[in-house]
User: Fold this.
Amino acid sequence: DAKTTQPTSMDCAEGRAANLPCNHSTISGNEYVYWYRQIHSQGPQYIIHGLKNNETNEMASLIITEDRKSSTLILPHATLRDTAVYYCIVGSSNYKLTFGKGTLLTVNP
Amino acid sequence: SAVISQKPSRDICQRGTSLTIQCQVDSQVTMMFWYRQQPGQSLTLIATANQGSEATYESGFVIDKFPISRPNLTFSTLTVSNMSPEDSSIYLCSVEGGVEETQYFGPGTRLLVL
Assistant:
């Protein structure tokens, strides 16, 4: 599976959009981009995934560049409860996830 | 979405002993997974457990140390055998989300080995 690069940490003001970047320059054609998050002391939570089109659900939007070498997870109106470690994972199957270190997003009041 | 429970939620154990962790899901699923999260680290997949077949272990994990049972489509156990302090971790089970292409994770079992 392709490797991903994410910033170690980010801050965001409550109510503002949080934009979390992920680089995956070695992604192959059949690999998806998955985003999960882990709130402290809880199990990871699925957020969204995509192949090449932008995706949106009730939690977030996923923007994938045309060359698919990077993506951005957007939380449109961050709340304090969105403080978590966000993992960007690339793989051909959701059934063998390789978690990196992720980005610690801290939403500040 | 699947609802997953794990027992125990946490435990403190003595080295050399074994602990069996239970994972229960509220719907039938084919694939269940066991992960380990060492202190301050990310998640690492231990093994995949399908009902009716032997578990498939990832590199660095062996059945003698982490035996897994999968007696039916809603339940699995992971045993951490002959524990040492290095086994102190959070152990998480997850299940495949079917057509939604997701994984649902349990709350984890926090293990401290003294």
Q: What stands out?
A: DSSP finds no helices and eleven strands in chain B. The radius of gyration of chain B is 13 Å. The longest strand of chain B covers residues 43-50. The CA atoms of residues 65 and 81 of chain B lie 5 Å apart.
